[in-house]
Amino acid sequence: MCTRTTIGMLAVSALAVSACGGSSQGATNPRPPAPVNLTVYIDNSRVSVSPSSVGDGPVAFIITNQASQAESLAVLPAGAAAGRPLASTGPINPQATAQITVNFSSPGRYSLSTGGGDASAGSSIQAATLTVGKGAGNSNNQLLQP
């Protein structure tokens, strides 16, 4: 009698364990793209960005100001003379760094300029151009991602 009870309990336990975790909801949803880090260098004559082209998605700009005076940086759609910047920094002191993040949702060309994107500021520092393409993809196969 004890053997039948034990076998019955084992069968019920095996059935209960096999039913756990059977849902696949969310298992096929791709993770968002991992942010791409770009370096921005400002000196007395120009702004430079490396690399100069990326795919759409989140981009983190790591900015260093090597100019002799404090400068601010603005990210604008190319050709937007005095439009509202997508992102901008406050003044960055000489020899200091700053960071901003922009989530580019559409491909195109963007300008990285000093003076906060204000055309009336009259900055003599040449702006850099960033080309954003299609297809940053997802981060499903990248290690150490949440």
What report would you give on this structure?
This protein is mostly beta strands. It has one helix at residues 2-19; strands at residues 36-42, 47-50, 53-55, 57-65, 73-77, 87-88, 97-104, 108-114, 128-133. The strands form two sheets. Strands 3-9-8-5-6 form a five-stranded mixed β-sheet, with no helix packed on it. It has a four-stranded mixed β-sheet with strand order 2-1-4-7, with no helix packed on it. Strand 1 and strand 2 (47-50) form a beta hairpin. The longest helix is centred in the first third of the chain and has 18 residues, at 2-19.
Specify the CATH architecture of the domain at 36-132. Sandwich
Structural class computed from helices and strand pairing? mainly beta
Any idea what the CATH superfamily of the domain at 36-132 is called?
Cupredoxins -  blue copper proteins
User: How far apart are the first and last residues' alpha carbons, in Å?
Assistant: 52 Å
How much helicity do the residues have?
Answer: 10-25%
Largest sheet: 5 strands, mixed
Number of helices: 1
Coarse shape: elongated
According to CATH, the fold-level topology of the domain at 36-132 is Immunoglobulin-like
Q: In angstroms, what is the radius of gyration?
A: 26 Å
Q: What's the total number of strands?
A: 9
How do the strands line up in the largest sheet?
3-9-8-5-6
Oligomer: single chain
* Average pLDDT metric: 81
